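so my prof wants the structure for this chain in the tokens format not the other one, which i didnt know existed until like an hour ago. anyway here's the sequence
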Amino acid sequence: MKTSKLVKKSSSKFGLIVGIGLLLILALMLVSCGDADEPATEAPAAATEAPAAATEAPAAATEAPAAATEVPAAATEVPAAATEVPVAESMYHEAPMLADMVAAGTLPPVDERLPLEPLVEVPFESVGVYGGTLRRAFLGPGDHNNYTRVTYDALVRHAPDGSEVIPHIAKGWESNEDFTVWNLFLREGMKWSDGSVFNADAIM
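here's what i got, hopefully its the right format
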């Protein structure tokens, strides 16, 4: 009887020890499983930071159009420099008192007063001095050419040496074979001293 009781007590103690051991092993397994799961939960947390960094890229990309808007502003300066066109000087010269009238706006520029093919008088030696007083003396009643030389202009004239007839107001002429018809060619664009047009109607 004592022996059987000892066996039962020892077996119950053994079973208790085994049960506690199993519980400890189970607890260790649960703890180890819990530790293994913890790193997995941290991975999504780290992954959530990536979108936050990615959201900064569009912000930096929005700065490019702002810099590009400065190019047209610089390009608008080109026409301003192109508007400075130099004014061509006239090929003709005029008396200083006439140039003063043009500058004052009381007389049109010399290019607008001359015909397309003006008569050009070549001076004998050089161009004289503008201004002054012209004094002439009449020899008598027959000296009518004394004033017509100054106030009258013909369609044609004699050369200074008297050797031929040369163009004057008319730039040229032609005739038929028997010299019964003559055609005179006037200078296009000629005007009277008051600016009115000088053409064939002033002669015919």
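also thought this was worth mentioning. The longest strand covers residues 170-175.
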